[in-house]
Amino acid sequence: MRVLVVEDDIPLATILERGLVEDGYAVDLAQRVVDARHNVESNDYDIVVLDLGLPDGNGLDLCAELRAQGYAVPILMLTARDSLSDKVSGLDAGADDYLTKPFDYPELAARLRALVRRPADARSPVLEVGALKLDPASRRVWLGAIVVPLTSREFSLLEYLMIHSTEVVSRTDLLEHVWDANYDGLSNVVDVHIANLRRKLAGPGGTATIETVRGAGYRLSTEEEPGEVKDQS
Ligand code: CA
């Protein structure tokens, strides 16, 4: 998951970045509207955290502008006051949710998880693909009944593959969504992490493999354990 944080309050932006990186997000920071616009044009984000008051403009206007251009990524607006008119304007401008400052990091993290999940399945916080189960809230992964210990990056990688489990995911997709700008260009980090994930998923709890689709990327493939009933369409 790659997040763009648009916030000109550096201490706050730093706290958010630290928390988000610890939670396994790839994070880019922008302090001005012009930087945010550039980031959105050149990168593929899963979510945007947008402050209202920015030195060269207004988060509301930027939000409305992005929506007018058809930008559909979830946007969480940060408002400085608990003012009803700010919230209404934010939602009118196309924000998906808002958070009033001051807030605690865990609250922001919970809102982001809810927003990122919303399009796929708003009711079920746990992702399931075959025998694989992933809980974004506790950041735990099970293969069958067995807990699979993963690093933060491996977790993010698997989460992305599970969300897109019916698709072939390209190496560029993974670099864009699981790594931040600092890693761009070093494409073998993907191979290294995929190899580690494969090793950890080759456990006794079930079968989950990450197939390499030549020239296209990777696809998560799982086999049900015998007797297990798949309950999703
Ligand atoms: Ca501000």
Structural overview:
By secondary structure, the chain is an alpha/beta fold. The chain has two domains: 2-117, 3-Layer(aba) Sandwich (Rossmann fold), CATH 3.40.50; 127-221, Winged helix-like DNA-binding domain superfamily/Winged helix DNA-binding domain (Arc Repressor Mutant, subunit A), CATH 1.10.10.10. It contains eight helices and 13 strands. It has helices at 10-22, 33-42, 59-68, 84-92, 105-121, 152-163, 171-178, 188-201; strands at 2-6, 26-30, 47-51, 53-54, 57-58, 75-79, 97-100, 127-129, 132-135, 140-143, 146-147, 207-213, 217-223. It has a five-stranded parallel beta sheet with strand order 2-1-3-6-7, with helices on both faces. Strand 8 (127-129) and strand 9 (132-135) form a beta hairpin. Helix 6 packs across helix 8. The protein starts with a strand and ends in a 10-residue tail after the last strand. The model is unreliable at 120-124 and 225-233 (pLDDT under 50). Bound molecules: calcium ion.
| Oligomerization state | single chain
Provide the CATH architecture of the largest domain: 3-Layer(aba) Sandwich
Provide the CATH top-level class of the largest domain: Alpha Beta
- Averaged pLDDT: 83
CATH superfamily of the largest domain: Response regulator
Query: What helical percentage do the residues reach?
Result: 25-40%
β content, as a range? 15-25%
- Measured on Cα atoms, how large is the radius of gyration? 19 Å
Q: In total, how many beta strands?
A: 13
Secondary-structure-based class equals alpha/beta
Query: What order do the helices and strands follow?
Result: EHEHEEEHEHEHEEEEHHHEE
What ligands can be seen in this structure?
calcium ion
Q: Helical segment tally? A: 8
Domain tally = 2
Q: Outline the biggest β-sheet.
A: 5 strands, parallel
The CATH topology annotation of the largest domain reads as Rossmann fold
